Please model this.
Amino acid sequence: MRVLDVLDVIAFAGQPVDSERIRTRTSLPHLVLEQLLFWLCGQGLAERLIDGSYVPGPLMKTMSADCSLRPEVTCSGPSHGCGTPPAPPST
Model:
């Protein structure tokens, strides 16, 4: 779940966030965080700016847009992105 914690900090910061702020918010060791950030950037989930700060990457932006465009999907909060479709009514 460490990856989701890091993505939450990046996605909901509302501005570029540096690795020190991410580390403080997630309590991850420096080396672990650096490896996760490198991997997230490679996957397109985060993007490293020239000043070393991080913003949501193109894949995260696409997934966020998909969630907001699909009314049949219930969003379950910041740590899980799009949730599962609502359960059918019981009969």
